[in-house]
Amino acid sequence: MNMRLATTAILASSIALAACSKKAPEQLPPAPADTTTNTPAPSTQTGPTVGSQSHFNNAVGQENTVVYFDTDGYDIDGEDSAKLQRQAQYFQQYSNVTFTIEGHTDERGTREYNLALGERRANAAKNYLVSLGIPANRIRTLSYGKERPVAMGSNESAWAQNRRAATVTVN
Amino acid sequence: MKFALTAIALVLSAPLAAQNQDLGQPVAEGGEVETVDEGEGLNVNVSYEGRLDDLGIAIPAFAADRNVPTPANANGTGALGRELARVITSDLRNNGLFKPTGPDSLPSPSYPEITAPNWSTWSNRGAEMLVQGYVRARADNKLTIGCYLYDMQLKSELVREGWVVGPADWRRAAHKCADLVYSRLTGESPFFDSRIAYIAETGPKGNRTKRLAIMDSDGANHRFITTGRSTALTPRYSPDYKKLVYLSYVDGNPRIYVYDIGTGRQTLVTQSANPTFAPRWSPDGRTILYSMAVGGNTDIYSVPATGGTSTRLTDTPGIDIGGSYSPDGSKIVFESDRSGSQQIYVMDVNGSNQRRLSFFGGRAATPEWSPRGDQIAFTHIGGGFNVAVMNPQGRNLRTLTRGWQDEAPTWAPNGRIIQFFRTERNTGKTGLWQVDLTGENERQLPTPADASDPAWGPILP
């Protein structure tokens, strides 16, 4: 079984390298963190509450709150792990914050399998954060399968944006 | 007295329960249909030897013994007789079964003619068969409805039957008449007198409102079960039609609930913090199959429908999900990606003897065993998403549909028609479709909104 998983991982990553179809960064909104830091001398009293989604987004960069997957995949690759490390720093700094990882799929799958696949993706991200020292009891996973796409088209670019695990703070 | 008090308590508590559970008002259960003795029909062979989809059937208005008021129709039993014939005509026309002619372009036979057809009236209408019937209102408001099938060439009766139904169930008598005609002419089992559970969809693609709904096999008597405040998915009727099992996000997580149609109450299938998906009934209604993800790994479990201890049936590291029992209840066909992609497997009901069935390229998902046992319908994912069938040995693959994304087949009670849902590219709009086993006759089922996740129940009890 370990052998099989290892082979799958190698295959999946080599396919990702060959195809370069996984990410859709050109579609992603710019990180709002820059605008915050450019604002002159904000008072410490204003700004988002610690643990709120906007606080989390500002702190880690919104582009780092979502990791993306290959078709049918759930591997955490180098880009994903860099994002999750940023998230882990935040959750280590704010140790009272609990959060949900929402697993999603693209529309090109059957409904029930996609629910299970979304759950598998959310758990892959969760397990990585746990390996970085975030307690598992602070992390809830929630699969939406193909029910909540963020990109509405029926094309490779939209599907790449929808195959995701999004970290959402519970606050 | 005690009964009256219970009833009041139920009425008072219902709205509160609905708030907590995303449920609308309970749906009244259907009444009984009693078959009445219409005497012996003649046992003769059908004269027609051509293609059934070219078979002309004249279906004039059913005759009332006298036109009297009935709760089933504002214009009385006379108008109801015409409606009965319209429903039968629609049933027999759909899916390209026959070439029926309905009551609106035919003369209306008198009541005495129902059992003694005026052959000369019908002989020049190009119809090989004649369906006549009557409707009588009883003193208790119930209706007696009789149905007769005649062979025009033989000038002979082929079959007859009658039913006593409550006025709210008049359409069931029409479906039973259509079933009687269909079965007599094709030799197949009936399927019209049945219901469908499905998910009604509205709203934008990124945030669809999804409500559990039920309807008759022809789309009539449509009712919503849930209000749409939380997402509902993948319903299945219990074999006795008294319950629905489905997935709801009502507590924020995907979990399977059993909804009791008579009482309007619902319960979790299993008390677990883990997400549960893909519920199925066993053919005897005693067992529910479900799939549960633990730490991201999904396996199939079975649990008594009345509650109790779950039994884990699969234990591979891949996603094992769904499942459909063979009609005899001895085997389960299910979906697994243990080989690296979604494929179809079969196992004994206790989980033993698991082996892969699908080896024809592409992925294979959502297997459903035909009620006849001779076919397995599934979603074939190759270049696209198509509904296909294979035999229970995994051979004789036949692709039946060609939509952009067709998935989730469900069988008519007689295993002769498959319903599924089709998703449009880009818009994400969905609809219910039906196809016969030739793949030639495909049609969309009318629904009040977009529709997905159909589940066709057995013949009504």
Spell out the blueprint of helices and strands:
The complex is a heterodimer of chains A (171) and B (461).
Chain A: H1 2-19, H2 33-38, H3 53-60, E1 66-68, H4 78-93, E2 99-104, H5 111-131, E3 139-145, H6 156-162, E4 164-169
Chain B: H1 2-21, E1 34-36, E2 56-58, E3 63-64, H2 76-93, E4 99-101, H3 119-122, E5 129-137, E6 143-151, E7 156-165, H4 170-186, E8 194-202, E9 209-216, E10 223-224, E11 232-237, E12 243-248, E13 255-260, E14 266-268, E15 276-281, E16 287-294, E17 297-304, E18 311-312, E19 320-325, E20 331-336, E21 343-348, E22 355-356, E23 363-369, E24 376-381, E25 385-390, E26 398-399, E27 405-411, E28 417-423, E29 430-436, E30 442-444, E31 450-459
Parallel strand pairs in B: 2-4, 2-5, 3-5
Antiparallel strand pairs in B: 1-7, 5-6, 6-7, 8-9, 8-31, 9-10, 11-12, 12-13, 13-14, 15-16, 16-17, 17-18, 19-20, 20-21, 21-22, 23-24, 24-25, 25-26, 27-28, 28-29, 29-30
Helix pairs in contact in B: 2-4
Give a brief rundown of this model.
The complex is a heterodimer of chains A (171) and B (461). Chain A is an alpha+beta fold and 171 residues long.
Number of discrete helical segments of chain B: 4
Low-confidence stretches of chain A: 1-21, 23-43
Order of helices and strands of chain A: HHHEHEHEHE
Q: What's the number of extended β-strand segments of chain A?
A: 4
Mean pLDDT of chain A equals 83
CATH architecture descriptor name of chain A: 2-Layer Sandwich
Helix content of chain A: 40-55%
Question: How does the overall form of chain B come out from the CA principal axes?
Answer: globular
Structural class determined from secondary elements of chain B: mainly beta
The whole-number mean of residue pLDDT values of chain B reads 92
**The top level CATH class name of the largest domain in chain B:** Mainly Beta
According to CATH, the fold-level topology of the largest domain in chain B is: Neuraminidase
Percentage of residues in helical conformation of chain B: 10-25%
Write down the Rg of chain A: 17 Å
Low-pLDDT ranges of chain B: 1-19
CATH level-4 homologous superfamily of chain A: OmpA-like domain
Tell me what the CATH architecture of the largest domain in chain B is. 6 Propeller
Total tally of structural domains of chain B: 2
Largest interface: A-B, 34 and 46 residues
In DSSP terms (H or I, runs of 4 or more residues), the helix count of chain A works out at: 6
